[in-house]
Design brief:
By secondary structure, the protein is α+β, with helices and mostly antiparallel strands. About 35% of the residues lie in helices and about 20% in strands. A six-stranded antiparallel β-sheet has the order 1-6-2-3-4-5. The radius of gyration is 18 Å and the shape is elongated.
């Protein structure tokens, strides 16, 4: 099992409220980790610079301050606000929650 899989298993065990090494439940956690991985789970991407924010297009992010925003063409449309702001004004780092897939 890779280090990434072990970390995912440990997180699932913590979420389930089980101590690491719990024999029967660990197998379930490993199975769940495998299912998540096969379903396309990947560690969320982090944007750390204003330049990366300006380049992001059709991306939903959570900022370091907890704000959720949709980034479109260098503008941030924050949930709960009518007006947009320059994407570079968001508190860094931001975690990418969703991004549009590139057309095939």
């Amino acid at each position: 099992m890779s280090a990434r899989d072990e970390r995912l298993e440990r997180l699932i065990l913590e979420w389930m409220g089980l101590p690491p090494g719990e024999a029967g439940e660990a197998a379930d956690a490993r199975g769940l980790a495998g299912l998540l991985k096969n379903a396309g789970y990947q560690k969320p991407r982090t944007i750390n610079t204003a330049e990366e924010l300006d380049d992001a297009h059709m991306v939903v992010v959570r900022t370091a301050a907890g704000t959720i925003a949709n980034l479109v063409s260098g503008r941030a449309y924050c949930f709960g606000y009518e007006a947009s702001a320059p994407a570079s004004t968001l508190a860094l780092p931001v975690t990418v929650l969703w991004e549009r897939e590139a057309p095939a």
